[in-house]
Amino acid sequence: MTTYGGFEPVFCTIIPPHVLDTLAKAEDQALAGKARRTLERDAFERTHRRLTTVLGAPALAPPSGATADKPNRTIYDAKHKQDLPGKKVRGEGDKPGKDATVNRAHAGLGATFELFLKAYERNSINGEGLPLNATVHFDEEYNNAFWNGEQMVFGDGDGEIFLDFTIPVDVIGHELTHGVTQYTANLTYFGQPGALNESMSDVFGSLIKQYTLGQSAAEADWLIGAGLLAPRVTGTALRSMKAPGTAYDDDVLGKDPQPATMDDYVRTGRDNGGVHINSGIPNHAFYLAATALGGNAWEKAGKVWYSVLTGGELDSQASFSDFAKLTLSQAHALFGEGEELQAVTKAWEQVGVPAS
Asked: What is the DSSP track for 8-64?
């Protein structure tokens, strides 16, 4: 397993830079100003993340008395300031308070912990009981949520384009899964490995939502961030794994740029080589495999993807094809030459990624 000192200096946000860039150019200067402030804050946090990687982050050990089957959650309130972590407002075992944002963050951390423990026998993000810390009410009208390598941070949104970032549980799961990737395959955050990094977070964010709601693959909406867009926005979510490119089409936000297949792969220098854009391709492959198999997506397709992410064979600079080949290998190792292998093979064929 990769040690902490070897981690890439990754700063992962749920709202892609290209979306905020579009908002920053809006004719409505109030909206544009909020987007610019979010971009400026993200740039600062990205630099801080890079320095943390160089200098080393403080070790976070499980507290005495912690058990392998229970999360250790702490929620902090930044009170609309930028200092992290902020004031502690809820610890593990504390009863829910009056702040719905605090309660949702606490529940989302728990849902993420439970999916990884119950489905994959993984004890927290690092597999060793890492405490789960989160800060809510970060900054003023901050339009993002992020994992900074040590903790979760949630903005309240501006109320015009984005709502409270703790509302969708898959957003919480998405960001925490960046931590799982950080402690395992440590996929480089650029180009195809970066898009795989983003896709892993979308896959397990979606599975966390499905697990929490008790939904089968057929019942799931396969949307990432449903409930996050404000009523004025023409769209349903940030991304769609079922139909990449259809999540939103708005006069201010722009149109969802994600491709579903390699035929529409986007070559760009923006967004770390399009990590939030081209992730639509492996996202769609997972959706196709999971829905072809039916039942609970975390049990078969999810197990294959998790085994590749954590199995030690996935290179940090893996291409889509490298990843696809490993999913075929794991599907065979886990389930033999049955429907699972056939479903995974066909899924990659449908999105145009060579897997054999």
From this structure: ----EESS-HHHHHHHHT-SSHHHHHHHHHHHHHHHHHHHHHHHHHHH-PPP-PPPT
